[in-house]
């Protein structure tokens, strides 16, 4: 038995069922049968293969892109003559590759480094201004009630050279250490190589170098010379230095920032601590403005 509409082979026992392909009634009154069979309709299924046709499995759901294109082409349900180009383009369309998100380098490191450099610069500026405010360093002691003085390290020589004609400084009395140090003189200039005065004087200007020279007799033993400088009967500074057993002469100098009567005392001691010092020379001089 075949369907009277599409010719699909039908089972002779199911004469009241509609055609599975075209869903038309197989009875003489199709309208009545269709109305009665609508509640009992079966879901769509693939048609039975006809003679000379290959068996086709139920079509798998097409991708969304393919279905959209098939509906646009008005292809009938179950049709197998889909356009190969459309299917190929729908299935093999390359999807854009996701670009890896590049992490932007954080500027936190640069900010921290900049802050460190800025802080270092501020510290350097602060140290600079603090250094400007500090008083200049000096090897001599300074006092608020006395002028600032400076001095150099006295030099000692092994031999003494003949000295030029000089005016001796005023040195009064005999001192217990005079056997070790004698012939002390004040001068404005001295021979640095021989420690002998070149221009002897007892009057100096403020901020002028005032030299004192002297001969040394260490008695074949090492010792020390301790110098104490005074201005207006106030101790301004002191300076000790060691001498060898064969020392012959020495000198030292100071610079006063104030005027007045002054003197320098020269002591002999066994060490530079001057704990056992003996007064050897006392030299007077004057500082004028």
Helices, strands, pairings?
Elements: H1 30-37, H2 64-72, H3 84-91, H4 108-133, E1 181-191, E2 196-200, E3 203-205, E4 209-216, E5 223-231, E6 234-243, E7 249-255, E8 260-269, E9 278-288
Parallel strand pairs: 3-9
Antiparallel strand pairs: 1-2, 1-4, 4-7, 5-6, 5-8, 8-9
Based on the model shown, name its key terms:
single chain; about 290 residues; alpha+beta; Immunoglobulin-like; four-stranded antiparallel β-sheet; rod-shaped
Protein architecture, described:
The chain has helices spanning 30-37, 64-72, 84-91, 108-133; strands spanning 181-191, 196-200, 203-205, 209-216, 223-231, 234-243, 249-255, 260-269, 278-288. With 289 residues, it is an alpha+beta fold. Among the domains are: 1-51, no CATH class; 181-288, Sandwich (Immunoglobulin-like), CATH 2.60.40.2550. The strands form 2 sheets. The protein has a 5-stranded mixed sheet with strand order 3-9-8-5-6, with no helix packed on it. A hairpin with a 2-residue loop joins β5 (223-231) and β6 (234-243). The longest helix is centred in the middle third of the chain and has 26 residues, at 108-133. The protein is rod-shaped. 19% of the residues are buried.
Brief account:
By secondary structure, the chain is α+β, with helices and mostly antiparallel strands. It has helices at residues 30-37, 64-72, 84-91, 108-133, and strands at residues 181-191, 196-200, 203-205, 209-216, 223-231, 234-243, 249-255, 260-269, 278-288.
The count of β-strands is 9
Helical percentage: 10-25%
Using the coordinates above, name the CATH class of the domain at 181-288: Mainly Beta
| Residues in β-strands, percent | 25-35%
């Amino acid at each position: 038995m075949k369907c009277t509409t599409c010719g699909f082979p039908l089972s002779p026992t199911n004469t009241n069922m509609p055609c599975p392909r075209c869903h038309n009634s197989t009875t003489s009154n199709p309208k009545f049968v269709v109305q009665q069979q609508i509640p009992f309709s079966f879901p769509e299924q693939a048609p039975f293969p006809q003679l000379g046709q290959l068996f086709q499995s139920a079509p798998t759901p097409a991708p969304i892109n393919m279905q959209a294109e098939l509906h646009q082409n008005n292809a009938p349900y179950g049709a197998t003559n889909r356009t190969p180009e459309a299917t190929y383009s729908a299935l093999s369309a390359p999807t854009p590759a996701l670009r890896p998100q590049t992490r932007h380098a954080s500027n936190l490191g640069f900010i921290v480094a900049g802050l460190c450099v800025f802080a270092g610069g501020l510290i350097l500026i602060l140290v600079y201004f603090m250094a400007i405010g500090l008083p200049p360093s000096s090897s001599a002691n300074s006092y608020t009630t006395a002028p600032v003085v400076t001095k150099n390290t006295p030099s000692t020589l092994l031999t003494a050279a003949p000295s030029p004609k000089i005016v001796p400084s005023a040195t009064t009395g005999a001192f217990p250490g005079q056997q070790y140090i004698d012939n002390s003189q004040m001068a404005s200039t001295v021979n640095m190589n021989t420690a002998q005065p070149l221009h002897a004087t007892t009057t100096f200007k403020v901020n002028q170098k005032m030299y004192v020279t002297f001969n040394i007799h260490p008695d074949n033993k090492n010792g020390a010379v301790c110098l104490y400088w005074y201005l207006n009967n106030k101790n301004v500074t002191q300076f000790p230095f060691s001498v060898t057993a064969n020392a012959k002469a020495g000198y030292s100098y100071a610079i006063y920032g104030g005027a007045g009567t002054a003197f320098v005392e020269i002591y002999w001691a066994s060490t530079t601590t001057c704990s056992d010092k003996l007064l050897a020379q006392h030299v007077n001089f004057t500082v004028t403005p």
